[in-house]
Write a structure and sequence with these properties.
55% of the residues lie in helices and 11% in strands. The chain is α/β, with parallel strands linked by helices. It has 2 domains: 179 residues, Rossmann fold (3-Layer(aba) Sandwich), CATH 3.40.50; 235 residues, Four Helix Bundle (Hemerythrin (Met), subunit A) (Up-down Bundle).
Length: 495
Amino acid sequence: MVNTVIVGTGDLAYALAHLYHINNTADSGHFLEVTKASIPQKGATFHETLVPLIPLDDALEHADVVILAIPGNALKTFIPAHVMVLKDKILVDCSNSDRNGEDLDSLIRSTGIRFVKAFNDLGAVDILANKATGKKKSVTKMCSSETKGALEVVRRLAEQSFGLDVKVVPYEHYREISRAQNTIGKEWIHSIYIMLITFVLTEFYAAWRYNVEKGYAWFHLPIQVTNKAICWTALTGFALTQLPGVIARISNLFRSTNLNGYSRTLKWALTIRKNLGILSLWFLGVHIIMSLLLMNPAYYGKFYVDPTANHSKMNVTGETSFFFAILGAMFYFILGLASLPSIGANMTNAQWQLIYGPLAWTALLFGTSHVLIMGVKGWADQGKWPGGLPPITLTSTLIPMLVIFLKQVEVALTFVMGLFGSHASKVKDNELNQIRSLIYEGSMQMQQQGKGNESGNESDDTHESGDSQLTSSTVGFNHTTGDVETQAAYVEDKV
């Protein structure tokens, strides 16, 4: 029996007690109690979990494992006050503080007291939503300076009584586990900076071109003018999401490499693609809502047959442009859904290749086409450019068109190098066939030797029967099909 006590009655303590209530079985060998300093006597239970509430001193005295579900700054007073009773226990640090003195690593690292970092990455609200009939397990990480012993005890507790899926992390990553819950992650931070900088630059350009040079009233800035910058930012973000993969594949054509062979910048760019894509999807959603609010001839007269009419139909420019806009947006929503863990975890490699390959490139092509069709007619008339500033339909499509061009280069190089590499491939196939032939022939020779040894122990009566007997076999390798062919020779013994 392993006696475990949770010190603290906050959200995390409530969540762990709930998990114990819905997952622990009588034969698990674990018993759980909850305590804190202000509990005067036994008899009460912790909310509806039925986990006993007992006085602090009694709980610590007979506990084997002590889960410290208290704030990090409280550890500085709790540990020294109870160090004598805790020195033979296994302590569990649930804190997320990275300040010195507010975690067990900095407090008791050199004392010899065993401790495990665990449960600090669990969300109490999500845990409390778990039901006994649920099929999905919550995942948690834990680490310890000990490779066995304390870590194994806490891991079994988490898996058997709390119903958690445990990932053991090397102790060298202790600080990362502590800090992980206090940051949104460098991938998100870098992606947010990229998208914000892009938006600020495009918003400045749009405001200068339309409000300053073209004379738009400044009250049109919040939606009509900003909508152009929002669209520009979304399209640029989607293009930047595709760019690292293209560069990596082109690099692979000229040198066989893996992630370790890429530059630090390329590896960094590959890691933030999902984050950039999600942020770009947010900008796309904002652009769609703003465009729907503005969709009438007064704002977008060039999309309508009669811009002066209140109920005019769209012309060919309007219908064609928004045809590509709608399809492209729907494709991007599919990409966004596929990025959800509940969906992505169940996708096969072929499905990933389809969605983040042809579908993603089609979405970028359609989104770029939407903007090109909208304004390509006005590109040549530079005399009408306000302040000599090119149209946003031109500037916003430069990066996407460059990325699409690089994709075409990659496809062409792959095709050409495939043609020149066909002979080398055939040579490699022949070498492979020869190796396989040697392996198969050696294997069959070993089998024949084994049969020969067995036949020496057989009765001679077997050879005196009148039936046809297998006397020899010839092993051959078909270099055309890659199959092993065995030809058996039979003779009829005459009496």
